[in-house]
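Bench notes, afternoon.
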Amino acid sequence: MNFSARVLLVVVLFFSITSLTRAYEARVIKATGVAEMTLAGGSTVIRLAVNSLIPEGATVTTGAGSELTIETLPGAIVTVNPTSTLVVEKLQLIKNGDVITEQTVTLNLKQGKVLSTLDPARKTINRYGVRTPKGVAAARGTVYAVRVDVMGSSFATLSGLVTLDLGGGRSLSIPVGTSSVNGAATTTLAAAIASNPALAQDIATVVSVVAAQVSMRSSAVETSASALAVLASVLNAASAALPEQAANFMQQAVQAVAAPTSAVFGAATGEAVATLTEAAVQGAVQTLSAANPAAAQQVTGAITNAAVATAASSGIEVNVEAIQNAASKGAASGAANATAPASNPDQPNPNSVAPKSTPRQINPIDPSVVSPSS
């Protein structure tokens, strides 16, 4: 092979390899109030609106009473809460032809709060993390909230599993239904709220945000399976954390799946309502039944009534008996979990801080495999 041919081959190989890695720009899919962006190395402030593109290196800020929902990469949605500052450190797609084989997002939360929703169907290709002063909270197919304020960094998981990289080869697993403050041992969301009542509003916000994403069919919940799995898990975790608000959470969830733009909307919507009922009741009863069986029974009735009434007002045809059966199944599961031993030798201790490794997901309930009652 002559010199010219060799040079040409090198050039062809170079562009073949580098074309696999694509630069990407995030896109605003919902904006409320005032949100702005400053490009890397620049000083010009750019007002953000729906369909605005956000490149790697940009700094995003939201004003008081403002909120921004951004599709960072397909299936990876971040909602930036009011008075937050976020740097988009990395956006990268790796493709083999038209197939995405890996996608990486790194966000640096300087202050405020963000909620990340990641499509569980893409968890094998997702490399997603939110950097905080305490470490990077990484996930693949998860719903989790991260807050940075004067008190430090806090993390709450409402679906899937988050791994907090503490540096020095140390990491902390934060399973669904738990929270950590500044990398300390995890506690249940209910216990975290008891220590910090302000967290209750954060949990309620997560439900509202995920319900909105389901109703608008964002890429994180664009299929019926993903939408139902994510919404059921969030509903379960939020109801366990705040059982007194579970009926309201149920109402929001049913309204979300009933929206004509929802991925769940259609012939299976009635079955979806039963699945969501089971998830909500299971969470609420798991928290209440051991200490207050009467309250658990009352909440079960409230959730069931909310499911039936909201479905009817939303035009969904449901089998009332199926919803009642789903509620009974959820109540039995919740009561069993509430009385189960505190530890399970077959599962790792989620509160232990161990050398960094790929954790095994710990799910008290996996609503994605809960079958609607019939």
